[in-house]
Hints:
Blueprint: H1 25-43, H2 52-82, H3 87-107, H4 110-116, H5 119-128, H6 136-141, H7 152-160, H8 162-165, H9 167-179, E1 184-186, E2 192-194, H10 197-203, H11 209-225, H12 227-247, H13 253-259, H14 265-277, H15 279-293, H16 317-327, H17 333-344, E3 348-351, E4 361-364, E5 370-376, H18 380-402, H19 405-408, H20 412-433, H21 436-472, H22 479-494, H23 521-538, H24 544-552, H25 560-565, H26 575-593
Parallel strand pairs: 3-5
Antiparallel strand pairs: 1-2, 4-5
Helix pairs in contact: 1-2, 1-3, 2-3, 3-7, 9-12, 12-21, 14-21, 15-26, 16-17, 16-18, 16-20, 18-20, 20-21, 20-23, 21-22, 21-23, 21-26, 23-26
Amino acid sequence: MKVYKSREEAPIEHQWNLGDLFESEEAWEKAYQEVENSLDDLREFNGNIKGSADLLRFLKREEEISAIFTNVYVYARLSSDLDTRDSGAQSLVDRVTGLNVRYSEAESFFMPFLLSLEEEVLKGYIAENEELQYFEKSLLRSYRYKRHVLSREQEEVVSQLGEAFSAPGQTFNMLNNADIKFGEVTDKSGNKQELTRGMYSKLMEDEDREVRKEAYEAYYMPYVQLKNSIASNLSANIKNNVAMAKVRKYPSALEKGLFGDMVPKEVYENLISAAKKNIDTLHSYNEVRKKLLGLDELAPYDQSVDLVKGVKQDIGFEEAYEMMLDALSPLGSEYRQTLASFKDKRYIDVWETPGKRSGAYNMGVYGVHPFVLLNHHNDLNSLFTLTHEMGHAMHSYYSSLHQPRISAGYSIFVAEVASTVNEVLLIHHLLKKAEGDRRKYLVNHFIDQFKGTFFTQVMFAEFEKLTHEHAEQGKPLNAEVFSSIFERLTKEYNGNVLSLTEQAKYGWARIPHFYRPFYVYKYATGFASALAIAGKLLNGEEGAQEAYLAFLKSGSSEYPLELLKKTGVDLTAPEPIDSALSTFRSLVEELGSEY
């Protein structure tokens, strides 16, 4: 496991070049001031849009300011994520967060104005001024929000509350990435050292059960200690969501969360229902895991250790990149050549360094390029994480290349499709070459990937649904309530074979995605969609590659469910979810049949 003691130790070619956004902090400051000074330009349009020419001038000016603001925001965020302890970088984030509130306030008049127009009047403006056709689809989509937009004065108030409403998420981010310190664990030499997130994922795979237990208890220790503070923070976030749903006249917080993607709540509810109807397969897998590990009882810290021993590989970053490119052959030479170039252009920040944000992500910037954050370790999990994030990066790259700015940003709903197609292609590539214990090891890895990306996320989605319903019904939300719901769901999804520890019921306290309401279900729908698309690619189905690449190039030019239908996946029908669950059953049966 490679962990550098300082950022300076990490190879420069494996670090982001933030100069691609701004050459210096002084250049960032100049752009920041440009956005701030431009807000009056937007305010001057308030009450002064009298016809098609005025409307066009506003929309063009808003897009210009938005483009600069995006770069200002991303630079601040990336700088902070490289070292969350850096107060200078954090001050940039604080400033840009405040600027975002003022920006929202300056343009808050526009949506009430737009929706005060009769749709035929707007269409008349577009017919009158050809340049407005660029904005046409976005403008007409806005009419879906007509009954949810407030008066101009009310929208101004809501925009002023934006910073306060974002506080719970920011508070958790600082707690989780900068302030929380984990307990100590014993290294191979018998010495005590402080646990890091990167170490934790590795130690949970250690063959020594006492090592896993020690790491598990050390990892959960701060979350249990801070359970009441984190619960208060999460409760505030949920109540904010519920309050805004009521203010904007949505039937529920869930339906508000689904509205932007035009996803019926039945898709969300049917996903949970389908997973629970097939939960016996997950219970069977836990039985297999318990049996193969030779345990009297299966604990949460036994869920990541390999069931097949002696086949682990040390996979360096350069080797991992080549393995990924080989696996993605079904996507064609243009895709692979483009992706190969990302490594040399410093689009990826590779290694774990002190204070660096945990996990991995892609942030695409229109007109610049994708920025991918990793905390890479030379193992199979890191190979899959790399492949996953580069799927996001290629989605960003293709959408930015083939779409105008207004439709280049794709919905989060489809974001996980591109990343997971890559992962599915990788596992099939590895399985094709594997025999004996190596194949069993990979089948087990695929099962665990499936469990984490589908079943765990569906469980989280149900937790979100239930806790928001509690708030909507005026019921209390505190550490005890969160723990009770989380513990019950953990037992229901994993079955009686999993013996829960005292810490397990506090799992809710460590999940960052709970501060992005109704997000996690998209991992599960994305995974099911990706399995279907990858199957078509691997089978060489005529037109499958072209349809999928067209999907990657589509940005938000259509609503997510319609984009997926063009790849042959219809999430309003049961088939994609049922097919995915059938695949999971087959994998569990293959692993179980060997013993």
